Amino acid sequence: MNGSIQKRGKHSWRLAFDLGKDENGKRQRKFVTVQGTKAEAQRQLRELVSSVDKGLPIDTSNITVGEFLDQWLETYVKTNTSPKTCYDYDGMIRRYIKPTLGHIPLRKLSPQLIQQLHANMYEQGLSARSVQYTHRILKQSLKHAMKWGLLYRNICDLVDSPKLKRKEMRCLDVSEVQRLLEATSGSIYGHIFHLAVYTGLRRGELLALRWYDVDLHSKTLYVNQALTTIKGKGVVASEPKTPNSRRLVSLPPSATGLLRSLKAKRMEQYEAIGIEWDQSTYVFCNVDGSLIRPDTVTHAFQRTAQNLRLSDVRFHDLRHTHATLMLKQGVHPKIVSERLGHASIHITLDTYSHVLPGLQETAALLFDDVLRQPSEKLSSNTR
After folding, report:
1. Which of 48, 71, 70, 42 is nearest to 60 (CA)?
2. Which of 125, 181, 206, 212 could form a disulfide with 279 if both were Cys (CB 3.0 to 4.6 A apart)?
């Protein structure tokens, strides 16, 4: 595959390269005019030639960043992500990316412009987390622009994503867990709190459980969806957060007993009001069978935590509590990762690194004990 560069003006270059032969055997050539230095023109020519060699389409249209993002949302995001993710992406693009970059031709996107996007968001008082999330959305979209032949490199790779300070998680100790469960025992919210502590499921995963997802005989439950609230659509069921979030979770005896008694109670309630029992009923629902809104659970937990004087505790911290207590009991991080539905064990190790130093110390002492035992037995046998 050949290409050439011809100077057109002071900072203008005409690139020419072969596209191979058509069905009639006729040679095809492509011509593109670019701006910049000769070195930049040479780089773009190499990228164009490389794209043709890889079979990628060559598109030099003047599509804007905004037009491209609209296409990306419609053709990729809507069909490949959950409704909640699609809603979040659309909101961040509409509120922050488009006002700054929407009118810019996609092929003229530069590191300086993306840095300006960051600066504009900080000026609006947004957090580093929001800026990082927006940067991640734009970077992901530009990966598809490259696949579609609209770009030859991802400009976001040239801009540092904002660094976040690790937020200290709050994990309840055993006595605090016991206080929480005793104070809410018998209530529907207490059942939710109990299962959150004993399984580590996310809030939306708990509320999306149906009775056919629960196997009381094998003492397991199957996570296959999550409830989320989307503005304009209300509460909807969607795919779990990641592919690994679809998982089978073993239940401890206390959680199995709780679910067994809850199921019996639900069946009695249905019989009393003349409704036929259905296994597709949600495990956690209102008396009439309607969904419990996720934010309702959060507010109920906040009130309970305040009454029990559990400071700075969120509902999501019950998930952290489950993981931390399991790790402290010597459960292998791989098993904890599977129970939590993390995309990889690396996320588990990174999230709960504060627990690992103590575990390493315990492991070192146990290893020392293992090696010491044969020596002591050998010494006693020679006496």
Report:
1. 48
2. 212
Residue 169 CB partners (closer than 8 Å, separation 6+): 317, 320, 351
Helix (H/G/I), strand (E/B), else coil: 361: helix
What pTM does this model have?
A: 0.69
Tokens 């559990």 identify what position? 310
As its CATH architecture, domain 174-357 has Orthogonal Bundle (1.10)
Give the integer Cα–Cα distance in Å for 265 and 249. 23
Distance CA 14, CA 7 (A): 6
Residue 355 neighbours by CB under 8 Å, 6+ apart: 324, 327, 328
CA separation for the pair 378, 282 (Å, rounded): 61
Per CATH, domain 66-158 is 1.10.150.130: yes
Residue 195: CB partners within 8 Å, gap ≥ 6?
Answer: 201, 206, 255, 258, 259
**DSSP sequence for 271-284:** HHTT----TTSBSS
Cβ partners under 8 Å of residue 145, min gap 6: 68, 72, 106, 151, 154
3-class SS letters over 281-327 = CECCECCCCCECCHHHHHHHHHHHHHHCCCCCCCCCHHHHHHHHHHH
pLDDT band at 55 (very low <50, low <70, confident <90, very high): low
Residues 188-229: tens digit of each pLDDT: 899 999 999 999 999 999 999 999 999 999 999 999 999 888
